[in-house]
Amino acid sequence: MVIALSALEVAPAQKDRSAAEALEAVGRLAQRLDELGFTRLWLAEHHASPWATSVVPAVLTAHYAARTTRIRLGSGGVLAPNHSPRALAEQFATLGVLYPGRIDIGIGRGPGTHDQGVARALRRGAELTTDAEYQADVREILRLLSGESDRPGDRLISGPTGPADAQPWLLSSSTAGSELAGELGLPIAFAHHIRPDNTAAAIEHYREHFKPSRWADQPRVSVCVEMIVADTDEEAKRLGIPVDLAKVSLFSGRGEAPLLPPDEAAVAEIPEEARPLVDGHSASQARGSVATVARRFAEITELTGADELMLMCAVYDPELRVRSFELAAQAAALT
């Protein structure tokens, strides 16, 4: 059986190009993914980023849903600590009314920024959310989306009461998040592109703790994988140099760095002390020719038992990014 494919977008910006151009490129990608039969396209929540122009997932979900006909749209994810549960429930309930049967709400915990001042501004001066506070927020979002309360103040939008037409998922990069997803009976989207060392153990933990719910009657697993597919392994390696350089900044604790054009990135050097970590991380993802990536898709699927692979492609050029997704679809057909 061909593995289902989905996509995660951060809408990467090009040097000397506007945010409008970056977001328009995602619109063209969304339409092509719709044609290719991808299951869903999720938009990330990043704040004060030097290169990611995906800031408000609910707004982008509405925009790209209007430009497509079949593919599911949603957040990957909205970050619960930055918003009130009520606000998120209302936003995605409204999207469900506008685009019935096509809306997901992927819920995550991260700050969405490496700037603590921005994080505090989003949270009105509040400090980092505790485990208990995060879990309470997730439960409240689910309670509101369920439509089970008959209290007038719990109505999310006018019209007949009932569950919102938005499928919740929980994003995770740890066993703690996986356990919560299992206990709540939610589908899980695991961040293999961030924590590949955690993937197998965390997904096993999820399955062990899964309890059927109104949201899912059995475990459902989406594994997010960094992907670059090109005509040759060598070309995929070249296209991956900009994101490898960006990883150096992230892994060193300096935060996000802008993506460089491949020609500029090719003359930059990755510090020797960072090379093993960067190379090891990239090797755990899916880069290369169609044949190489087909093997990696099969290996990751066998490792995780994933129901779908959610692909994140940080190729600098937007047209080559579309091409990478087209080739990824070919690779999936070979698994």
Helix and strand arrangement:
Blueprint: E1 4-9, H1 19-36, E2 40-43, H2 57-65, E3 72-79, H3 85-98, E4 103-108, H4 116-122, H5 131-146, E5 167-172, H6 175-184, E6 188-190, H7 199-209, E7 221-229, H8 233-251, H9 262-266, H10 275-283, E8 286-288, H11 290-304, E9 308-312, H12 318-334
Parallel strand pairs: 1-2, 1-9, 2-3, 3-4, 4-5, 5-6, 6-7, 7-8, 7-9
Helix pairs in contact: 1-12, 3-5, 6-7, 8-10, 11-12
Tag the structure with descriptive keywords.
335 residues, alpha/beta, 12 helices, 45% helix, 15% strand, 8-stranded parallel barrel, TIM Barrel
What does this structure look like?
The chain is α/β, with parallel strands linked by helices and 335 residues long. The protein has a single domain, classed as TIM Barrel, CATH 3.20.20.30. Helices cover 45% and strands 15% of the residues. The chain has twelve helices and nine strands. It has helices spanning 19-36, 57-65, 85-98, 116-122, 131-146, 175-184, 199-209, 233-251, 262-266, 275-283, 290-304, 318-334, and strands at 4-9, 40-43, 72-79, 103-108, 167-172, 188-190, 221-229, 286-288, 308-312. Strands 1-2-3-4-5-6-7-9 form an eight-stranded parallel β-barrel, surrounded by eight helices. Helix 1 links the parallel strand 1 and strand 2 (40-43). The longest helix is centred in the C-terminal third of the chain and has 19 residues, at 233-251. The radius of gyration is 19 Å and the shape is globular. The chain starts with a strand and ends with a helix. The model has no long low-confidence stretch (mean pLDDT 93).
